[in-house]
Amino acid sequence: QVQLVESGGASVESGGSLTLSCTYTPSRYCMGWFRQAPGEDREEGVAGLDSDGTTSYADSVKGRFTISQDNAKSTLYLQMNSLKPEDTAMYYCAADSLRRAAEFILSTDLEADFGYWGQGTQVTVSS
Question: What does the alpha-carbon distance between residue 80 and residue 105 come to, in Å, rounded to a whole number?
Answer without folding.
Answer: 17
